Amino acid sequence: MDYSQFLMMPQEIGLLLVFLLVFLYDTFMPQRSQRMLPLFTTILFAIYTVLAFIPMGFGEAFGAMFESTPATWVMKNVLNVGVFIVLLQAVKWTNDDFVSVRRGEFYELILLTLFGMFLMISSRHFLLFVIGLETASLPIAALAAFEKRYYESREAAAKYVFTAIFSSAIFMLGISFVYGLAGTLYFNDIAMAVTTANPLLIVAVAFVIAGVGYKLSLVPFHQWTADVYQGAPTAVTSYLSVISKGAAAFAFLVILVQAFGSIYSQVWEWMLYAIIVLTITIGNLFAMRQRNLKRFLAYSSISQAGYIMLGVIAYSTVGMASMMYYVLVYIFSNLAAFGVIAVIERATGKVTMDDYNGLFRTNPWLAFTMMLAMFSLGGIPPFAGFFSKFFIFMGAANQGTVAIYVLVFIALVNTIISLYYYLLVVKAMFIRQDDCAVPYIDSHWTEELGLTICVMGIIAVGLASGIYAFLNQTTASMASFFPAIG
Amino acid sequence: MEIFSNILIYFVIVPLVTLLGLAVCNNRGMAAIRTVATVGATVLVALAAYLVYIFLHERGMGNQAEMILQTSVMWYAPFNIKLALGVDGVSVVMILLSAFIVFAGVFASWKMNPLPKQFFMWFFLLSTGVFGFFISIDLFTMFMFYEVALIPMYLLIGVWGSGNKNYSAMKLTLMLMGGSAFLMLGIIGIYFHSTPEGIPHTMNILDIVRYDAIPHNWQMWLFPLTFVGFGVLGAMFPFHTWSPDGHASAPTAVSMLHAGVLMKLGGYGCFRVAIYLMPFAAAQLGWIFLTLTGISIVYGAFSACVQTDLKYINAYSSVSHCGMVLFAILMFNQTAMTGAVLQMLSHGLMTALFFALIGMIYGRTHTRDIREMGGMMHIMPYLGVGYVLAGLASLGLPGLSGFVAEMTIFIGSYENADVFRRTLTIIGASSIVITAVYILRVVAKLLFGAVQNEHHRELTDASWDERLSTATLILAVAAIGCFPNFFVNIISDSFVPVVNALKAFFPVVM
Known about the structure:
The complex is a heterodimer of chains A (about 475) and B (about 500).
Chain A: H1 10-28, H2 37-52, E1 59-61, E2 66-68, H3 70-94, H4 97-100, H5 103-122, H6 126-144, H7 151-182, H8 187-193, H9 199-216, H10 225-231, H11 234-259, H12 264-287, H13 293-313, H14 317-348, H15 359-362, H16 364-378, H17 384-397, H18 402-431, H19 445-463, H20 466-476
Antiparallel strand pairs in A: 1-2
Chain B: H1 10-23, H2 30-60, E1 68-76, E2 81-87, H3 89-108, H4 116-135, H5 139-160, H6 165-192, H7 205-211, H8 216-233, H9 242-249, H10 252-277, H11 279-306, H12 310-329, H13 334-365, H14 376-379, H15 381-394, H16 401-414, H17 419-429, H18 431-448, H19 464-482, H20 484-492, H21 496-503
Antiparallel strand pairs in B: 1-2
């Protein structure tokens, strides 16, 4: 075996190194040092995140099953940044009495699922993809059950694990159909072998979409989302809603474009079209009625996933860049929102929207952060969400058909609906006055740092045009990534 | 940085610096907040005056460029989005108007309570958006500033408003943002058809006009999208319903800024984006929107006649007057379009004056229902005289701004030879009579009627900050009325390119 091919996966190796160090620390360090484990992991991960920005080792490995390209490198870095914020925000929570006995597992499972997601993004073969998908799915059930003293947390884990297994089964059935049709599981070969639609292929693609779609909580594969988001600990929910979703979105792009690119307009464009319309609309309509903020953000993130998919249906490098950018902005915005929720939940145990009445009077900075997050999610300038929405619409419209313009219009109308419920949160915090508002919360410095990074991201990522330009430049070299439409 | 040598960028920087200055103030230190806000507003007025000077100077030197003070810096290279600045006569007077109203608005909210610091911060964020919109000639930045100007309204009305404020704030925000959804789609559509094959797409308005490449069949649906998008903000029938509720619930300074400046963004955008970039569709579809704006004019005026809340009366009157702006723009000739800008100026100042006075009266009587008030002329003569002056300007008395604007509009409109436009002109002109009815009704009841509430006899007249705020506006209204030529000279040349673009598709009267 040629060991030099491991050099093609520097980010995965680095991540495994972090994992091993954390594991060793957890296993061998004395009990009194264990309190420092969260900080140790976070700092280690921060160093790794920075180092991973150094571009190196692009190419294929393991018989072209694994491929590292500039685009996958950027995608993984985007996820790293998000995971770093999630870890930072979880430091205080994992030192809580109840959780602290198992805090090692929390970090190890997070790092392992991230490893699985990296495999999903970089795979060029369905076998490796399935390994990645399973690695990225099953440990999340354990994470969801982390607060096992609560019934909701256990219920969330059960729901997640059933959905994950069922979806995997469907996914693998889809792959087996594909294998039957194409005789190969390599993405590139599939794209060359299957160029015309037939009923079996349509079913196969639909199964593949369903198998990955549940991770993105695309409608109609979204049923688990609200309950799991509500029941899981907030740190896990934020991980699920941004990292898991972002990785699945990237993987979705990789599969649909690389393996099924040649049948884009014949088979899956209209499927995705319908899914996007349903996802955005249904996510929005359900979000309006939620009073629990975690459920509320669950539905909001369903609808956001629909917007992310606009970058896939665009089928172009511009769409790909816009999608990466959208995910980056979404990470900052959603983590800001979940960060505030986590702080308030940890201090007071309150998570419903009515508890946020008058938050501005007692906790102005938390309210301010939450407001920025809501504005950014709703696409209000000058915050990053505006730019990411605009660019993802531009990316989609670049495709040029009237149908796509109609889709963009539907998405735009939904933006207004989403603005309504995002403003409800702002209204609760700023306009509603309540005598028994949440008292002043003395948040931990790690939580404050995490929120500050998010706020800076929300403000800077939009105004600093260099980030989008960089993404665009990276994907511009990926034109060969898109097979010709048959 | 080349962009900082352009005076225009300071119209965005100054409000932002003011905003940051306010951020470091303490909510209890009212003096500091007032100082910062006043300094910021004064600098803006000074800058605007200087800009007018520069503009006249450049034109006097024979600079015939369509837009002066142009600077363009690449922002988002992948989409060819630039931070492109530039002004013509219309934007110059709009900037002047905005600066005036921001100045008057600061003094009108001198005793703002509670959370004065946050109030002024949102107020200046709103101004940033307004100024940014007028100085941009790039569709993307224009749209961005447009939305920056809209969103602070939600909190300004929601937190500091009165009455049914939650409902009004949400309705206003969602309707205006709904308009901007149309607009965004329109802008995306324009972008992808902005240039001939092989040339990178652009967002720059002047470039789009120069290439003149938007296919006619695309214009036919991009024009309605953009026109309706801006028309919502211009309170065009049937998208005007946010306006009465929003104005009635908003605090004084916000009503002033909103009716005075923000609604002008709508008119300005309709002219600058919808008509200028898509003259073919404008000529083809103009009649639909002309009918709608005609309805706005008459319907707004009639609605104002039956309202009893002072703010509702003024809000419906705004619907009528802003309808006139869009109406005149759609008449497609230089006279009427000049009148439209004069009307924007006139309505901006006069409505701001109205809302300032109503706010002051409401602050004393705690009611805005005209049935519960009377005899205010004796009780507070300064405010009473101000109200009469605003009313006279509104109904078009010569010597005040309304007369100049409406005369120009209707003369320009009647120049069109076709029966449809002439008929609409006659119908539109009838609104002047209706305006007189509701203005005189209010003046008679509120100022000269019998005192309805004995407690009102003890009320005081305007304080110095209120006098300063209203005097600024009254002087400006009179200045337009007495020296219209000064403004007409600045404005009218700006319409030559638009009218030239329309010539190919419409029998323009020169």
